[in-house]
Description:
This protein is of the alpha/beta class. Helix content is 45%, strand content 13%. Among the domains are: 210 residues, Ribonuclease H-like superfamily/Ribonuclease H (Nucleotidyltransferase, domain 5, 2-Layer Sandwich), CATH 3.30.420; 181 residues, no CATH class; 201 residues, P-loop containing nucleotide triphosphate hydrolases (Rossmann fold, 3-Layer(aba) Sandwich). The strands form 4 sheets. It has an 8-stranded mixed β-sheet with strand order 6-9-10-8-11-15-7-16, with helices on both faces. Strands 19-20-18-21-22-17-23 form a 7-stranded parallel β-sheet, sandwiched between helices. Strands 3-2-1-4-5 form a 5-stranded mixed β-sheet, sandwiched between helices.
Amino acid sequence: MKQTELLKKLNLSTYVALDFETTGLDSDFDRVIEVAAIVFKDGKPKKTFSTLVNPEKNISPFITNITGISNSMVNTAPKESEIINELMKTIGNHPIVAHNIKFDLSFLTKLCVRHNYDVPKNTLYDTLQLARSVLFDHPVFNLSALSEFYGLDASGSHRAEKDTENCGQIFLHLIEELMCHNLEEISSVLAVLDKYEVPNKKLYVDAANILIKIGNPKVALKNRLIDRRSGQSIYEFTGSQNIQNMNASDVFGSKGVLSKKYDWFEDRANQVEYANTCDNIFDGNDSGVLEAGTGLGKSMGYLFAAIKRKYETDKRGPVVIACNTKHLQDQLFYKDLPKLSEALDTSIKALLIKGRKNYLCKTRFDWFISDRNTIGEDDIESVLPILFWLHYTSSGDLSECNGFFNSRKTWIVSMICSDTGFCTGNICSKNHGCFYGPIRKQMYEADILVANHSLLLSEAKVPGILPEHDTIIIDEAHNLVKGGYDQFKISLDYNSVTSLLRSLNPSNPRSKRWNNILMSISDGEPLLKSLREKLILELDKVKSSFIAFMNELAVNNESEFDIKKSYQERPIIHSLVKEYSSLNPELSSFSNSSHKLSVCFKNISSFVLKLDPNRSKYTFLHSILEKGLENINILNDSISLLTGSQDNEWVYWKEGYYNSKKELDSDLQVSLYASKIDISEVLRRRLYDKNVNFILTSATIKVENSFDYFLHRNGLENSASIVTREYTSPFSYHDQVKYYQYGGSRDITNDIGQLADLIYHVHKTYKKRTMVLFTSVKMLENVSKKIKERLGGNKIPLFAQSKGASKPSIIKGMHSNDNALLFGTNSFWEGVDLPGELLEILIVVKLPFDVPSDPLIKSYSNHLDKNGYNSFMNFTIPECTTRFRQGFGRLIRTTFDSGVFISLDNRIITKRYGDIILNSIPTDPEVFTDYHSIR
């Protein structure tokens, strides 16, 4: 069907695309500074109305930075009263299309009200919500990213006319994509939208009417435009070989199976030795800390040892392999493991696993979308992408569905994800255990489980998530300590407590299902009815006492935080007694009421258990009550640990952020945290000691040519059975890398103009893809702005990791432009793979030191100093060196790569500790003082 005919059948032969640029987000307070409306006929732009508007109020520098519209530009522009008539004529009765239409509609409505125009009742279409639904697996959904995806010119984005033109064109592409879905899929959307009036609903209705005429609900109007292959969570290969007696050289040697199977394979002596060491560790009762340089092929090496482990008669459960980044997890599971097992021709079963809350529970999702009285329009729109995604996913991993996941609806995730009592029991039997149920069963039959650090540490904290096992491999091990701190810290904050209390309240509409069961039992059990009523009263008391505590906490800490600052300090609480003495009435009330709530919940749970001792009649209710009681006890423990007796081995701190909540007196919300100062003993006792064999591996473990720092941080310095080995990279860094190190006497890392000049010069000189790594977002944004002011700067394809920019779209920009300039911060220092011509110039602006005032950093530094160590040399420098090495590792990814590395922090040359960092880079520098010498 031709586009014009399709648009006619969809009642969209004519529509108007609309966009406002404004002084802010509040339509009551803010005003329009630019408007564009473009009428499309038969898919072509035919009439344009576009103008700047004098808002009669100041435009902030923040808005000017985003839109490029300044106060001077609008001073002589027409006022809104002078443009509204022409705008309303252009809009007419045509369907209105906009990106995030509720924003534009709110400003249009206020504009009409202020100037006595009727508010338009036109049919509404939203390209943001439509893109989230039909492009559910796209990484990002802003207008610039979608323009780029569809090959539209995105230059001039955040100016109304350009945004409007692109929005109208994107709408056409999204319609084409929608018609690649069949009637069955679109009908599921309409069933959910039955009682809602939301943008795009008419589009779904009209599309369904077209599809009905096809006569087959499983056939779409158009062939699929995007090849969607959902990642499988289970990998199973049936082979004919027993590899029990194979050694590493049989696999990785010059005449090994990989060399025979794959033309791309290069045999490397160090890879053979590395794989052999992994194999020997698993053969004995040893464990290993192994540094394997970039390009060695370490993942293949330890995978070989893990596959062989299946033949060990004394093994207990699967080998668990844990990585820090999704990138490496996917590489292991979808690339390395299949290639290796096929080359070995040996049977293997492996699972890619996450914590159960990452998976959709079909039962809970069905319940959620059927409770129409409890879900608002915004919430129902946010789950529409799931309805499309469900027809394609094999894994049920919610993170696949970016259209939903990126909306940050955490409370909805908590309502629809797999949870205790679901997916593995009778409740989800009609859905065959949903997604997590089958995965859970397969875990016990698997030879290898590929997980992330977070899941492995969760298992260490609360055993039972994973099957029994005695062998683990931890890749990207330099990140494990940080993950340990994240996992074992304790917190108390407004959102988590109020969310918990809502989930425990049977009178809350979201508790409808378990409350109905409780009410039906209560009809014949007066005591249970009384307990339920008491529970509701106790919940109200807990909530009111908690709100009172939070309000007083905010009052007491007003001087600690500053709403004007983008970065809020995280003050350490040195004395719990002093901190909470003035809050004693509120804190005592909160703590006492929370303990009474625990008793109340326990009484109800015990009562229901007496009625149903076999847990067969009220299975769902049992799981809700037990989970609720567990969460209340965790809350009580947290209150006690955070505000009770001070433990000198722990650090306590508070964090503040500004976010208005109706229940709170202040916009300031203060959260409380605590953590062990030294996590090493916890890791050793809860993780390492529980496994017969473990391997910790990374490309960046050693500091000053020694494993001592890593062993100490992981609590392994006194372990006699630890094998430590270094296997160098096969890359010839002296030949592949030209290293320039700034050594001038003046620090240039904080000089915005000097940095911009240098980067501009380097980019102009080499005309190759360049990545610049920063340690500060503010500095990144300032230098980015300065670059654009240079001659031709606006034409440089600059992709900066600033607010609103996504990592996937930035990386895509590097792929699409052969002279791209990428500005990145934390997440670009590691886990980014840009081989060959995708990255040839790497600039590191500043040494990546930790923030010294960070509570975990400061407390551990003090801990070392008190115990006679120099914390700067024994902690600060090793951490910085490891991160610096990770940054350098982005440049050379294959033996065919070459590139230029430029480090701009002169402390590497001028400070004594600089030699430690300098010696960690496997090539010699050319020191420069004038950037013009870089050629």
